[in-house]
Amino acid sequence: MIQPIDSIASIMNVQMVSLAPQHSLREAERLFRSCKVKYLPVLEGDELVGMLSFAKLLECLLVETCKTKDRMEDVAAHSQIKVEAIMQRNPVKIPVHLTIRGLAKILANHEFYALPVVDNRKLVGVVTTTDLLHYLVKK
């Protein structure tokens, strides 16, 4: 059972890797694959400016690849397109003091799979539906 006072701070991922808007899609792909994550925050300095999902990246790479027949042309295109072109801008953020029950309500009512967690506008973590499921299984 979800305890009404349990904070998302206890389940969020604080070992974050991030992208910058000027990273190429090729760099983003390498980071997604090496870190084995499905969502990455996009930061400009310390400011959260977007989120990028691995699914969105793959969709974009597939579309670009289908436009050409030359593998080298694909690699070049993927190296030129920047993360800022496909990232979700101004993502919904949740406060670090939000309860797990509050998180569950947000996830149940919206199509979010990962949400950035902020404390005084500073990114402190990312919480996913998988994090919530792990919590529920342990309870």
Structure description:
Helices cover about 40% and strands about 20% of the residues. With about 140 residues, the protein is α+β, with helices and mostly antiparallel strands. The chain has a single domain (about 10-139), classed as CBS-domain (Roll), CATH 3.10.580.10. A hairpin with a 2-residue loop joins strand 1 (about 40-45) and strand 2. Helix 1 crosses helix 2. The mean pLDDT is about 85.
Descriptive labels:
alpha+beta; 3-stranded antiparallel beta sheet; single chain; 139 residues; 39% helix; 5 helices; CBS-domain; globular; 3-stranded mixed beta sheet
SSE blueprint:
Layout: H1 25-35, E1 39-44, E2 47-53, H2 54-66, H3 71-80, E3 88-89, E4 94-95, H4 100-109, E5 114-119, E6 122-128, H5 129-138
Parallel strand pairs: 4-5
Antiparallel strand pairs: 1-2, 2-3, 5-6
Helix pairs in contact: 1-2
Tally of structural domains: 1
Low-confidence stretches: none
* Share of β-strand residues: 15-25%
C-alpha Rg (nearest Å)? 17 Å
SSE run: HEEHHEEHEEH
User: Residue share in helices?
Assistant: 25-40%
Question: And the CATH topology?
Answer: CBS-domain
Strand order of the largest sheet: 1-2-3
Q: Based on DSSP secondary structure assignment, what is the total number of beta strands?
A: 6
SSE-based structural type: alpha+beta
Q: Largest sheet, described in full?
A: 3 strands, antiparallel
CATH superfamily (homologous) name: CBS-domain
Q: Given this structure, which CATH class is correct? A: Alpha Beta
- The end-to-end span amounts to 6 Å
